[in-house]
Amino acid sequence: MVDIWQNAMDHAVTIARRAGEVVREALHEDRKVMTKSSSVDLVTQTDQKVEQLIIQSVKEKFPTHRFIGEESVAAGEVCELTDSPTWIIDPIDGTTNFVHTFPFVAVSIGFSVNKQSEFGVVYSCLEDKMFTARRGRGAFCNDQPLSVSDQEDIKQSVIATEFGSSRDPEAVNNIFTSLRNIVSLPIHGVRGAGSAAINLCLVASGCVEAYYEIGIHVWDIAAGSLIVTEAGGILLDVEVDLMSRRILAANNTTIADRLIREIQSFSPPRDDAPLLPQ
Ligand code: IPD
Ligand code: CA
Which of 132, 175, 196, 249 has the fewest beta carbons under 10 Å from its own? Predict the structure, then answer.
């Protein structure tokens, strides 16, 4: 069977590796830190430079394709997923880690056609791990097949989550309520890599049973969510709606259903919500 998107996926792997080199080199230089939506939502010139590098290189090969890029949206571009082939880019997922040299930093490239994920590439550039998935063809890390954990008992599980980049008191309250409920089940432990994309790859690798977060963005999860499902896992919310800003990715429905009962949900504005007039 001819795979019409294989060329694009090969290009995504090549450009993610090149972007990862730029990120690694930048760790030896001064990193000027700026902020976006809040004082803990960080961005550096390297985020912007890497996003431009990826977009320019894709445009040369695939001039008709569209883009949703974290830093382009931050600069005012519309965040809209259409049926056209669309590259969904997080140039540095784990910017806070990058700023603090905490060693989990990823380049994340998702690709969607007719609003369906076709492939996902997450390059964990300090670990030198290239995670890939192509719809219907499995998930891999450095070309080795991945599969989720077969654990069905929540009390024998490790769950990943994050505090995110909002400090809105209501959101913080909900996050701690969920965390207290889940820790008290009790579970074996809670982890967070500081990168949504890497957390999803940890689910796909069977290192944690589930990852959940409310407040993430489409670029954080576009690639990693396909890596989870292609490794045999399941998704709630995001499977039908990448813009929902909520994700629960799990190894199976038993763990997902048990976890969802403990999560205090809230609704940040959708990624594709119309911009308010200035
Ligand atoms: C963030 C990371 C973090 C998650 C935040 C994301 P960024 O992405 O994935 O783990 O908790 O919600 O915004 O800003 O480093 O690309
Ligand atoms: Ca980012």
Answer: 175
